[in-house]
Amino acid sequence: MRLLHLVARRGNSAEFPENTLPSLRSAIALGARFIEIDVHLSTDGTPMVCRDQELVRSGRATATAAELEQMEAGEIERLGEQFRGTRMPTLATALGLLAGRPEITVFIIIGRHSLGRFGHEQTVARVLHTLKPFRSRCILASADLTAVHAARTMGTCPTAWVLPAYDDHTRLKYEALLPDYLFCDRTFLTQTAPLRRGPWRWAIYEIDSLEEALSLAERGADFVVTRQVRSLSEAMLAHAAGGAAKAGSSADGSMDATHPLPPPGDR
After folding, report:
1. What is the per-residue burial (b if ≥16 Cβ within 10 Å, else e) of 102-127?
2. pTM score, two decimals?
3. Domains located in the chain, CATH noted
């Protein structure tokens, strides 16, 4: 059996406001070992957990950390009034949830707006400084190739590139850069051929169904990134348990053991 890992996209963002402490706590409570969050630098240089696109749309992309911490993050339009009053956390506060939880790894995705405002090296350096106490359990990621290169050059934690496409031109870039992880939108995978192999590990995002997850595992995916943390994790666990019971029984009645892939940082 090939093991496939689930990554909680912005926490349990199907049921809670994304990138918030309630969403992250819910994902952890559901047993997620891998979580993805977005990071934006406030105008005074504090890494905040949020999507910079939302701040640009709301006109708050240049707000200070103190102002952003007071920003309503309850996603009232999507989730109604139940999470009104939920606030935006700093990256340091969010990473505090890792204390005493060595099994959890976080993918931290740096947005483009911060990179444009502060520059690649300064933005990456500020984020790396914040995650330093937990760097063995953090992966720094971005859709910006120069930011990933800067993170690799600083060399304090694994890196991931969020691919802009799945084609030969992009392949030449990641074969030159050699990031530890490659994030890819499932809609880019128009063919059914195996994923290109290398020293990296594949994470395919916006996966909601067990069928699609299993299909990607057969093609070589190591991670599926989902908002549907509860339903997909339950389906994957049930499938794994059923497969182990069916395939693991031996003549003496014992069960074969399966082992997870090594966590990032221990490779």
Report:
1. eebbbbbbbbbbbbebbebeebbbbb
2. 0.90
3. 5-243 (3.20.20.190)
